Amino acid sequence: MKHISDNAWGKYEITRHPERPRSSEIIKEIFSNFIPYLQGFPKDPALIAGSAKFKNQKVFIIAQEKPKGQSLEEQTKVNFGMVKPEGYSLAMKIMDLAEKSNTPLITIIDTPGGDPFEHSAEYLQSWKISDCIYKMAGLKTRTISLILGEGGSGGALALQVADRTLMLENAVYSVMSPEGCASIILRNPARKEEAANLQKPTAEDMLTFGIIDDIIPEPEGGAHNDPKCTILNIEKKFSLTLNELAHFDVKKLLKSRYKRFTGYGEFKEDYTEIFKQRTMKSVHVIEKKFEKVFERLKKIGDHLTLHLAKTAKNEEIKNLKEPEYYECEKCNTHISFQTFLDNYKTCSKCGAISRKYFLSAHEWIECITDKDSFIESDKYLVPRDALKFSYKYEGKTKSYKDTVKKAQKKIGVKEALVIGEAKIFDTQVVVAVSEFGFLGGSMGSVVGEKFLRAVKLANHKKCPLISVALSGGARMHEGILSLMQMAKTNMALTKLKKPYISILADPTFGGTLASFASQGTIILAEKNAQLGFAGPRVTKMISGKGMDEKYYTAEFYLDRGGVNEVVSRKDMKEVIHKYLLSLE
Hints:
Blueprint: H1 8-15, H2 23-30, E1 32-36, E2 47-54, E3 57-64, H3 72-77, H4 85-100, E4 105-111, H5 118-122, H6 125-137, E5 143-152, H7 153-157, E6 164-168, E7 172-174, H8 178-184, H9 192-199, H10 203-209, E8 214-216, H11 227-246, H12 250-262, E9 267-269, H13 272-289, H14 291-300, H15 303-320, E10 325-327, E11 334-336, H16 337-342, H17 361-368, E12 375-377, E13 381-383, E14 390-393, E15 396-399, H18 400-411, E16 417-424, E17 427-434, H19 445-461, E18 465-471, H20 479-493, E19 500-509, H21 510-513, E20 522-526, E21 531-532, H22 536-543, H23 554-559, E22 565-567, H24 569-583
Parallel strand pairs: 3-4, 4-5, 5-6, 5-7, 6-8, 17-18, 18-19, 19-20, 19-21, 20-22
Antiparallel strand pairs: 1-2, 2-3, 9-13, 10-11, 12-16, 14-15, 16-17
Helix pairs in contact: 1-9, 4-6, 6-20, 8-9, 19-20
């Protein structure tokens, strides 16, 4: 793939210009008879929603509003352009109205991201964003999305799952802000310009990846230099796109939308492990043939060398042994390490989970399924390095390819999601379990594809789907393709025919929680699990201050209605089975 943007940071500077046209101006100049919808919803200053006329055709509009100007008063007036849960709830109401009346829906995107703070946690921001994505995925009407300025992560994606997406020439769309990517990946906030280029966020890049359908030109230097010209260009493109969509049957558009969003991702099959196994088998056959020769050599041979080799091996095995005792990180009780492992890495006294020893994907599968019932599928999928993501750190070059290979070697799995069929007390299920040890369980192209295949397998087997999420969120190394996996997984769930039980394990953050993990028919969370729309580090980076720890707990989200039940690991299998029986 060719990417022509070599100055993405320059695009950010243009699109963040304080005088850039905002959604309210677009609505005022292009549409007539705009009627805002406020009935029964608290006002969210960062979201404009209602009905209007476009050249005598009725349309519904959902638009994100960024601040005009640079003063603190202007910024806070619209919450810096960050939409809160009540805004996304209003957006879904407008979607319903558009669908019921078979009226086209136009969304305008311009936000640094969804609001991540205390109020939004209380009103289930992750769930609302995920619900918006899910609703747009299956919305039975014609939809157009315009990326006007800054398309910031899941907060933008919530309104972008459309039949056609247009993007202004200097707009940007990314999984994380350049400042965030520089802090987290490059570990230096000053490298924001480099981070911007790494993520490939420009309109040209979006066209290359198939995220958008067309680029709307801007005047030289940016839309703020000639707002009237920019607005005229937007109006022309809206007119052409609405006329185009009018010729399509909604059922065909839904099929096309499903195909498009489930098609996002860059991956391949990697069978090198199988070839290695076959090679080793051939070596063993040769060894067998020469066994007698080897025996003679041993009798003659170098007993001292053999003795030294055995001693070194025994010492190596001794060094790899687990510690004798485990000290609980919460109550400080000492228990034998074997008891700790038998209790699925939780304290046998207080039940606290460990944040030093995470359960691997296969340990989670052992925890919740019948012994030896799991049959893994699609285990050889690996990601492609679509962005050619590579950077310098401490004088060494770090690439996404090398990062993936190291994780594969260290953890022993190909990617951050393990899927397959299994049984829970003899009930047939399909499971999709995160591997937190693999790049923090982050969601990239392979995770999205494997979840899609898990849904298809559940439909084929006519059985429920069980997912266990442990993830830091979307994977920045894959840029916009990582963000699209939120839409891909939720789009997949629109076709699921059987119940879906989602388990939120420790920790579950970001795009994972704001997509498939919060879409369960039943949502369970493990006791003491850390959950949230944005992790503590990201939240502190945005605001300069952190939030109280209670806003990151499973118990908090139980009280707020986000989960059905909080369950200890040792009881998880029985509780899952209880819900399977009730749903059946």
